[in-house]
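tool=predict chain=A
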Amino acid sequence: MIVKVTSKRQVTFPKRVLEALGVGPGDQIELQEHQDGFILRPRRIEDWVPPLAGQIPPGLPPPDLEKLREEGYDWSLRD
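tool=predict ok
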């Protein structure tokens, strides 16, 4: 399978690839360097929320992961 890199260095993955990874709009894909190149891996909210669990004050309800996944990521909130 071949994907084209645009002048802005962006690529569009075929629908079949994204469905196989289980990612959609707002999701992130992590690239892991490997001796033979790179590995694509979906970066799910479950991967980074559990380490933060110890920082949540007792008594608060657990986060709604489905809602967070559907909302996507607001880049304006970064750092």
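The longest helix spans residues 15-21. The helical segments are 15-21, 45-48, 65-71.
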